[in-house]
Design goal:
Blueprint lengths: L5 H15 L4 E4 L4 H14 L3 E7 L7 H12 L2 E6 L6 H4 L5 H19 L4 E3 L12 H9 L4 H4 L4 H10 L25 H15 L6 E6 L2 E6 L4 H5 L1 H13 L4 E4 L21
Parallel strand pairs: 1-2, 1-4, 2-3, 6-7
Antiparallel strand pairs: 5-6
Helix pairs in contact: 1-2, 2-3, 2-8, 5-6
């Protein structure tokens, strides 16, 4: 590919080689930056031997499924949607630090059933090289079940994926990260359909003010808002802050706070002790 440095070009060639040896793939497709890039390269290499599968349930942010469907159609890739039922699993709803492990285990188990149905050789996900240095219990489930992570194996970082996604004109190249809504709750706080809906509505309301990267962390009667520091001035305008306060009060929050550290991924993991984490 023209216009990229030698190292990045080499990683792309490595990724294409990894995928070419797989025969056929089922891509666990969330519609995010990483999985869209992986889906694009997999479909370029394996053509119609690639199937994208997206999970749908109450835990996912609004609009993600529609965006995934649109992207798959744009790429000309076969796309299936499955329903997952995380809220039926008490191991998930009890919200321990291993929550993502149980979520991914259910998802990947269903994907293997689908892969067998369509006679596909491998299930692949969008985990990248940066994920090795973050707290990712879901990767343990992937490892146990034999899910492959070609982006990680090719040593692609998130920033490199964004660079190539832009070169490939993928609409997700600058998309903010959008993990499931259960990440908005402190560990030990039970996850319910009602709580997920409240966070969903709160974040939808904030997005109306032009803020793309945001989280509403739910601490019971406290809503802790995380946004990028350059955007903080938007919420501090008197008319905007009143609208937000009124809306959040209507949703059941008593206190509405702005986290001065700003938006960051995995802030709910900051309270974890090292021994509480699983490999």
């Amino acid at each position: 590919m023209e216009g990229i440095d030698t190292e990045l070009s080499g990683k792309l060639e490595r990724l294409e080689k990894i995928l070419s040896t797989m025969g056929s793939t089922l891509v666990a497709y969330s519609g995010g930056v990483d999985s869209t890039f992986l889906l694009k390269v997999s479909s370029d290499v394996l053509k119609d031997k690639t199937l994208a599968v997206t999970a749908n349930s109450e835990i996912y942010p609004p609009g993600e499924l529609e965006e995934a469907e649109g992207n798959a159609k744009m790429l000309g890739v076969r796309h299936k949607v499955i329903e997952t039922n995380e809220l039926d699993d008490t191991c998930f709803t009890s919200n321990t630090p291993e929550r993502c492990y149980y979520c991914k285990k259910e998802l990947f188990s269903k994907l293997f059933q689908l892969a067998n149905q369509f006679d596909l050789d491998h299930i692949i996900d969008g985990s990248n090289y940066d994920d090795l240095y973050d707290f990712r219990p879901g990767m343990k489930a992937a490892s146990e079940l034999g899910v492959k992570s070609p982006l990680k194996d090719a040593m692609f970082t998130k920033e490199e994926i964004r660079i190539l996604s832009k070169k490939m004109s993928l609409p997700t190249w600058d998309k903010p990260s959008s993990p499931c809504l259960s990440s908005r709750f402190p560990y030990g706080s039970k996850i319910t359909k009602e709580k997920l809906l409240r966070v969903k509505l709160a974040e939808e309301f904030l997005s109306k003010f032009g803020i793309r990267q945001l989280r509403v962390r739910d601490h019971g009667d406290i809503a802790r808002i995380e946004i990028l520091k350059p955007d903080m001035g938007i919420l501090l305008k008197e008319d905007v802050s009143k609208k937000i306060t009124d809306r959040f009060h209507a949703l059941g929050y008593t206190y509405i706070t702005l986290d001065l550290k700003g938006y960051r991924t995995g802030s709910m993991n900051e309270s974890l002790k090292r021994e509480d984490r699983i490999g």
